Amino acid sequence: MRAVIAEDSLLLRIGVVKVLEAAGFEMCAQVADAEGLLAAVEEHRPDIAVVDVRMPPGFTDEGVRAALVIRRQYPRTAVLLLSQYVEERYAADLLATHTAGVGYLLKQRVADVEEFTEAVRQVAAGGTALDPQVVAQLLVRRHSGPLDRLTPREREVLELMAGGRSNSGIAAELVVSESAVAKHINGIFTKLDLPKADADHRRVLAVLRFLGVATA
């Protein structure tokens, strides 16, 4: 897979590049600001862009705004945001517009090389990866309604889905069979009014509904 990284901290940028190269990614470009990021994505059309939330010149939301431009203009390029702290509004902004190929992790996760590279692969493949602390913050946004229809076990399954667990990972955590997990997930889709449709990723939409993030 091909990747670009936008991070103003030289040490962190070098570290992420080395980690991803060791994991088999082709690093097309490494830049320090949003303008350079957009130029790199236009030139290389990578599978994924790893983007710092706050970058020059204002160190506010430059990375988020660039990520939204990328997802709008280059939908085949996934985006993984990195942040020093949980900034729930930025995660919600990105997730509210796009339901696949996005991720939001705290920078401390880079230290766990295996976990970080797996998250990058997952997002690049069209999935989502949310830092557990981000999930915890977004849970505050949940609204009542269809979620009240879920059984306690279905809520457990959905919460693990929100943390990025696969069916096999959920089965191992709850000590049940994968077929039981699949049955619970189908029940969740039904109770959240998510009919099967090729245009939508029901697993992602269910997680977003659980987190209280409105989708376009």
Automatic annotation (TrEMBL):
Q: Which Gene3D superfamilies match?
A: 3.40.50.2300
Has UniProt tagged this entry with the keyword Magnesium? no
Q: Where is the HTH luxR-type domain?
A: 143-214
Post-translational modification 4-aspartylphosphate, affected residues: D52
Q: Cite the Response regulatory domain residue spans from the record.
A: 2-122
InterPro entries reported for this sequence: CheY-like_superfamily, NreC/VraR/RcsB-like_REC, Sig_transdc_resp-reg_C-effctor, Sig_transdc_resp-reg_receiver, Tscrpt_reg_LuxR_C, WalR-like
Question: PANTHER family annotated for this entry?
Answer: TRANSCRIPTIONAL REGULATORY PROTEIN NARL-RELATED, TWO-COMPONENT RESPONSE REGULATOR
What is this protein's name?
Response regulator transcription factor
